[in-house]
Amino acid sequence: MSTLAHTMMTAARPTDSGLVGPGELDRYPYAEAPVPDRVGSPAWEGTEPELGRVGRRTAGNRGRGLHGQLVQQLGQMIVSGDLGADRPLVPEEIGQRFEVSRTVVRESLRVLEAKGLVSARPNVGTRVRPVSDWNLLDPDIIEWRAFGPQRDDQRRELSELRWTIEPLAARLAAGHGREDVQQRLVDMVEIMGHALGQGDALTFSRADTEFHSLLIQVAGNRMLEHLSGIVSAALQVSGGPVTGCDRPNETSVAQHARITDALAAADGAAAENAMRQLLTVHPEIERVVPAPREH
User: Fold this and answer.
1) Residue range 83-110: mean pLDDT, rounded
2) 8 Å CB contact between 245 and 279
3) Residue 212 · residue 231 · CB < 8 Å
4) Which of 16, 1, 10 is nearest to 210 (CA)?
């Protein structure tokens, strides 16, 4: 097993810094009056009690940084429906509720706007946008939906999307024959097998995610390559055994090995079929994804 493979399995997932560019802060107007250090709860009309609990958890857990935590909290609240479409978001009130600075609020709203969750317009302010405007392929939104009230729809849609993307990627990857990537894929299968024997579900999941991302990247199709992050997010937030990839067992490892064998033999049809077998879903949701196609 290569040293690179071990390094990839222990590296943390990179996060978007979300830093603002010149002049960006002024897009979210803030009153110039200073914000007190400690204030009572602002009057967010229609706010549920849970909002206050979320705010207190955020204030007490700052491991992700204030900016990252606020993006996470507001994003989850929007996606869950706690902050419904066209709901106004007043920066001063957000800053008071979550006890963060105006800069943190502005940066967070900028990130949420880039994801399509909010819009900021002069004389209108910042408002929550309807789900039809969200960037549903954004990894953060995938995660928030997967653990919210839309989790069943999210899992089904991700399974359908993977069924569309990955068999094609496997077929295309078989024609490229890049030995370095082939070896990395083999490393991932070896790590999965070792993790299975050790009962290490986290390492198994990381190797599985890396395997599928690499496969899409080596397919030689730049548009497909841009979708590799979606597949990674789908594997990380699947929340249960939807596909063979989500079940750490010997069969899953063997199916991954079949794919690497087909790639090494430059057999596109076999690689595609092996991937379809790997992505076969449970009988209760077979209506969502067709049965594997024989070649």
Assistant:
1) 92
2) yes
3) yes
4) 10
DSSP label at residue 11: S
Among the listed residues 214, 209, 277, the one whose alpha carbon sits nearest the alpha carbon of residue 244: 277
| Matching residue, tokens 């390094």 | 7
- The interaxial angle of helices 66-80 and 49-60, nearest 10 deg, is 160
Helix, strand, coil percentages for the chain (3-state, nearest 5): 60, 5, 35
How many CB atoms lie under 10 A from the CB of residue 228? 19
Tokens (6 digits) for 24:
């960006």
- Cα maximum dimension of the chain: 70
Report yes or no on whether pTM surpasses 0.85: no
Q: Is 59 exposed, middle or buried (0-12, 13-18, 19+ CB in 10 A)?
A: middle
Q: Give the count of beta carbons closer than 10 Å to the beta carbon of residue 244.
A: 19
In the sheet where 125-128 sits, what is the strand order?
Answer: 88-89, 125-128, 118-121
Within 8 A by CB and 6+ apart from 99, the residues are 38, 55, 59
Distance CA 167, CA 279 (A): 9
The rounded distance, in Å, linking the Cα atoms of 175 and 265 is 9
Tokens of 99: 């006890």
Distance between CA 85 and CA 194 in Å, rounded?
47
How many residues can be counted in the chain? Answer: 295
Q: What CA–CA distance (Å, rounded) separates 79 from 133?
A: 12
The string of pLDDT tens digits covering residues 121-174 is 888 899 999 999 999 888 899 889 888 888 888 888 888 888 889 999 999 999
